[in-house]
Amino acid sequence: MALTLNLPTASGSLAPYALRGTAPVKPDAGVKFNRIAYSAAHVVADPLAAIDPWLQSAVDWDATIAYRRHLFSLGLGVAEAMDTAQRGMGLDWPTSLELIRRSLDAARDVPGARVASGCGTDHLNLDEVKSVDDVIRGYEEQMAAIEALGGQLIVMASRALARVAQSPADYECVYDRILSQAKQPVVLHWLGEMFDPALAGYWGTKDVDAAMDTAIGIIAAHPDKVDGIKISLLDKDKEIAMRRRLPKGVRMYTGDDFNYAELIAGDGFGSEPTHGKSDALLGIFDAIAPAASAALGALAQGNTEKFHAILGPTVPLSRHIFAAPTRFYKTGVVFMAWLNGHQKHFTMVGGQQSTRSLQHFAELFRLADAANLLEQPELAVRRMKTLLALHGVEG
C-alpha cells in the first residue's frame, strides 16, 4: 500500500498525496568522478541551547560533522563555512572558524577528502570599514587563521568591499594583495545579488559583462594562485561565456543551482578541457547528495544518458528550493536533511526555519518524491505530518 498524506495545494486547500514508491538511487561503493565536486554544507543547530536564536548561534557539532562525513562517504568534497552554512546570516566568524577546524580534522580521517573553506570579511563592523585597506586587513586576518589550520581558501565575496569600493580598480587592488599572499591556489567566489542583495554591483559595476572582464583580468594576473572561480549568477550563458575565457587550467565551479546538470555535463568547447565543462561547488548538492554522487559516477564512466536520468529530475526541486527570495534557500536544504533523517529536528541557526511557507514545504516534499530523493519514505512522511500538525493540519 502506498504511503499517503494530505498536503496543501496552491489553492490553499488540502488534497491527498500518494508517494511514488520508487527506491532512491544509491551510488556505487568507491565511486570515482571525472569532475571535482564540492557540496556547500549546512550546519545543524543545537535546539536545546539556551540562546536567543535571532541574535546568537549554537551548533550541534556532532550532527554537523556527521553530515560532512556522510558527504565524504559519497565522494563529495565540502565547501565549508559558506552561505549554505548561513555564513553572515546567523553564523559568525568565530563559529565559522571552529567549523572549519572541525571539518579539516574530520577530512584527515578520509583518504582523498576535499575541504575548501570560506575566507571573508564578515567579522568586520561595516560601519567602521572606511577603505579598501580595511577590507584587505579583514581578508588577511581570516586567511591567516584558515591557512594556519592547513586549509585551502575560498575567497568569498565581501559585503565590506562592495560597500567601500569606488571602481573596478579597488577590486583589483584587494584581490591582487590577497592572491599574491595565498599559500596554495584559491577558489574565488562571485555571489550574485539574488543570493545576497548587499553584493549588488560586485567587481565595481552592475554591468555583468564588464564585471566579468574585471574578474577575468584579476585571474589572468595570478593564474598560478587561482584553482578556479565559482559563480552563482543563475545564468548559464554567462557562466559558459566566462569559463571559455579562463586561463588554461583554471576551473569554472558552477554555482548555478538552476542549470547545474547541463553545465557539469559540458559542451566540449575547445581544446582546453576546463573550457568545455564546469566542475561543481553547489549548495543543492547538500540536499541531493546521493543522487549527485551516483550521477557523477555515471558521467565518469561515460554514461551521459544515465547522468541526466539521475540528475535531471532533481533540477525542478533545486529551482523550487532556490526560488526568490533566493537567500532563503538554506531553509529547504535543512528541511531535506531533516526529512531524510540526517538530523533530529527542523531548527535552524537564526530561526531561519520560518523563512518559507507551509505551501513551499509541501511542494518541496512532492518534488523530492518525484526526484527519488526521500531516503527513508516512512520517516519522511512522519516528519512531514509533524510539520503539518504544527501548522494546524491534522491527518
Provide structural commentary.
Helix content is 41%, strand content 12%. The chain is α/β, with parallel strands linked by helices and 395 residues long. It has an eight-stranded parallel beta barrel with strand order 3-4-5-6-7-8-9-10, surrounded by four helices. A two-stranded antiparallel sheet has the order 1-2.
Shape category: globular
How are the strands of the biggest sheet laid out side by side?
A: 3-4-5-6-7-8-9-10
Whole-number count of domains = 1
**CATH structural architecture:** Alpha-Beta Barrel
Number of helices: 15
Distance, first to last CA? 17 Å
Beta fraction of the residues? 5-15%
Major beta sheet, specifics?
8 strands, parallel, barrel
Q: What helical percentage do the residues reach?
A: 40-55%
Mean model confidence by pLDDT: 96
In terms of structural class, how would the helical and strand content be classed?
A: alpha/beta
**Count of strand segments:** 10
